[in-house]
From TrEMBL:
Species annotation: Ornithinimicrobium pekingense
PRC-barrel domain residues: 7-72
InterPro entries in the record: Bac_photo_RC_H_C, PRC-brl_dom, PRC_barrel-like_sf
Protein name in the entry: PRC-barrel domain-containing protein
């Protein structure tokens, strides 16, 4: 699991897909309410980073100062549109769990 300290050192890092292709720049980190550990990260995609999408950190790793996630760029860019300016609702979180096939866990917070 990627720690908050590691993410702090990678401020504005590139997020890359399973093949090492650039997806976009890391945005906000959402923490698990119970553990305080990073659970989700937003990724700025699209023209000049105008769209932000959530990506789970549970299976991400740091490779060459980039955050590598085990999903394709196309899958990440097609993720559900969920506002990134507040806590995730339980329904939104469930949609993300289902979309990324991630086991249910505690709700993250911004």
């Amino acid at each position: 699991m990627i720690s908050q300290e590691q993410l702090n050192a990678l401020y504005d890092a590139e997020v890359v897909d399973q093949g090492g292709e650039r997806v976009g720049a890391m945005g906000q980190v959402y923490l698990d309410n119970k553990t305080g550990e990073p659970a989700w990260v937003t990724v700025r995609t699209g023209w000049i980073g105008s769209r932000k999408v959530f990506v789970p950190l549970s299976t991400a790793e740091i490779v060459d100062e980039q955050i590598r996630v085990p999903y394709s760029t196309a899958m990440i860019k097609a993720a559900p549109d969920i506002p990134c300016d507040r806590h995730l609702s339980e329904d939104e979180e469930q949609d993300l769990f289902e979309y990324y096939s991630v086991d249910d866990g505690p709700a993250p917070s911004a």
